Amino acid sequence: MNKQPVILVTGGARRVGAAIVRRLHAAGCAVAIHYRSSADEAEALAQELNATRTNSAHTFAGALENDDTPTALVDSVLTHFGRLDGLVNNASAFYPTPIGETTAAHWDDLFAANARAPFFLAQAATPALRAAHGAIVNIVDIYAERPLAGHVVYSMAKAALVMLTQALAKDLAPDVRVNAVAPGAILWPASGKPEEAAEALIAKTPLARKGEPDDVAEAVRWLLLDAHYTTGQVIRVDGGRALNI
């Protein structure tokens, strides 16, 4: 059995997910890097980390919206590493759903990625996490509390993930701690963000800058490894942005 704490990070191949993976690995964890379609990025990241510490990173593919994927993913991680100490529900879907243009497929997709998959992953991981006295961190959003205009379904789905965080913190106590991180402006969408809109958002952020993926990664590391008396909490990593929504 692996002697390092083993953490499963969904959506761990790119962007914030990759920063979380790197930070946890630097803290001495073995990392299970889940990806859906970013195979090249996931394999490159695992090779990078294994070059510094042998057999400390491995990739796992899966479409989390499929009914059997969460259990199969957890089983694969346990087969490979022999243990599971933490789960980071980072994989997400984000796009606008304007009133009058939103379909049932949009609803199902956004809730599947942002609420349904995290629940079933947590359920599948619970026996191993109880045995390890481990922890779960869900990546939510400041817009779970105050919705983002034009993103009704996304905001609702992330609000559901906040409630899941609190419900699991009760149901899995005292064996498993469950918390969430709510990022603000960390990375613009891959499609970019108009300069004027970006500047307006930063102007409403008290710390007057965009955050970095490492800001989120450090909060996740703390909650997983050091926050021994913290559960059911949502930690905002937003430069104070939520104060001005």
UniProtKB/TrEMBL annotation:
Keyword Transcription regulation carried by entry: no
Keywords in alphabetical order, please.
Oxidoreductase
Keyword Oxidoreductase in annotation: yes
Query: Which NCBIfam families does the record cross-reference, listed alphabetically?
Result: PRK09135.1 (NF006598)
This chain belongs to the protein called Pteridine reductase
Tell me which family the UniProt entry assigns to this protein.
Answer: Belongs to the short-chain dehydrogenases/reductases (SDR) family.
State a single Gene Ontology molecular function.
Answer: oxidoreductase activity
Give the species.
Luteibacter rhizovicinus DSM 16549
